[in-house]
């Protein structure tokens, strides 16, 4: 296991995904953010099936910045409960690990 | 590590991915299913390189429902061996964890 | 935890992603490669925010082939430091595990 985490969250608009990325990069909370093409999101909410187009955001940062990223995401996200999940990176090449440590907030 | 898992499987048609999502949500085997844009899938099968367009399905649910989801996926999936993999979610914010526990089958 | 890993890397061109896939499959370093639709990639590099369209490549293989895949990726990738990360697959159904073990290099 490394000390790097990949965080996944979805946004209801492309513009919102872009703004969130800038907030995370400007604050040096994350090393990179990938905004994917919209996904067809189907989920259970208050007893009903809901369906929305959402833009997936994939964030790479240090594991010890997960909570800071969650806070920043919740502050700027329009949902009451944005689903935020983080995956520990198990394998990484040395150059990538060095880059992530270097560009993110001490 | 949390008790949440993210399951990845691909489907040969968009319609098939939608039907699979509904089956998983209706059975409350999963809290949410994201159907992504089609991917260019290249793989080794019976000694040859194969290429297909496939629709990726990303499923969030409780880890103890992984096998149940696999069963449901295999029952409805046209492939003999759909590649089904699950990743333990290492970090999650409390509100997301509560939501997943609440909406999935006890 | 299984002995399977999912590797993520992005490529600056679709053609590059295809060539990389073929190199990995031809060498039997990987069982399958999914090339996704381009992502809007934003990242910190040498003190500045950079933005590029990149094609995400998702690679499934055995965990003990991670370093071999990294070597092959770096050899064919145009970036000086391609960000290569690997996630241990925690859950897999037996048929998928058997297939990956069978088609990848001993």
Automatic annotation (TrEMBL), chains A, B, C:
Gene3D superfamilies in UniProt: 3.30.70.120
BP term (GO), one: response to metal ion
GO molecular function ontology, one term from the record: copper ion binding
Record InterPro entries: Ion_tolerance_CutA, N-reg_PII-like_a/b, N-reg_PII/ATP_PRibTrfase_C
Family assignment from sequence similarity: Belongs to the CutA family.
Protein name from the UniProt record: Divalent-cation tolerance protein CutA
Organism: Aurantimonas marianensis
């Amino acid at each position: 296991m490394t000390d790097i985490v990949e965080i996944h969250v979805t946004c209801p608009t492309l513009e919102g995904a872009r703004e969130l990325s800038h907030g995370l990069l400007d604050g040096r909370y994350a090393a990179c953010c990938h905004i994917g093409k919209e996904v067809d999101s189907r989920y259970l909410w208050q007893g009903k099936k809901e369906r929305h187009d959402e833009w997936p955001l994939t964030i790479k940062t240090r594991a010890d910045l997960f909570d800071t990223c969650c806070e920043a995401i919740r502050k700027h996200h329009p949902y009451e409960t944005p689903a935020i999940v983080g995956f520990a990176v198990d394998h990484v090449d040395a150059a990538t690990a060095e880059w992530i440590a270097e560009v993110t907030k001490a």
